Structures are given as structure tokens and as C-alpha cells.
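Could you help me review a protein record that somebody else here produced? Here is the record exactly as it was handed to me:
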Amino acid sequence: MKLKLDLHDIYNKGDQIDRALRGIIDEAIRTRATEVEIIPGKGSGQLKKKVLRFLDQKEIKALYHRIDKDAKNHGRLFVYFRHK
């Protein structure tokens, strides 16, 4: 199962971004999704950096397996999960 989160609509609302990211991570764990696609968009790269900082937090990092950046589209990230 694959989930998708597009952040274009809330790109300038920091608290909503954190809630949306946490929500999609929690949903991936609850539904045992193997992959989450996060779309921060291309722009200046600030939103992508914010997403990566969020994902790099110790308590969040413990929840997923790895992150890949899309080689063909730098406005997209993939977060992969391993469920036991």
C-alpha cells in the first residue's frame, strides 16, 4: 500500500505541515503501508528542507526504514516502512 501527501496547499503554514507529516506517518503505521510519497514541490527548496528536518527527528526516524529522493523530480520524497 502506498500513501501520498501533497504539501502545496499548506507550504507556508509550519504548524499544519508538521501535523500533516505526523498524520501521514501515523496513518502509514496504522494501515501498514510500505511507502509514503511526500510532495513538497520544487520551489526554493525550503519546504523540502523542513520535511527532511522533520523526518530526521529521533522519534520520527525510529518509525520508518529509509528515505529516497526522486532522482528525476527533486520536488518529491519517498519514505519506506518495514512492518514487523
Observations:
- Strands lie at 2-6, 35-39, 66-69, 77-80.
- The mean pLDDT is 91.
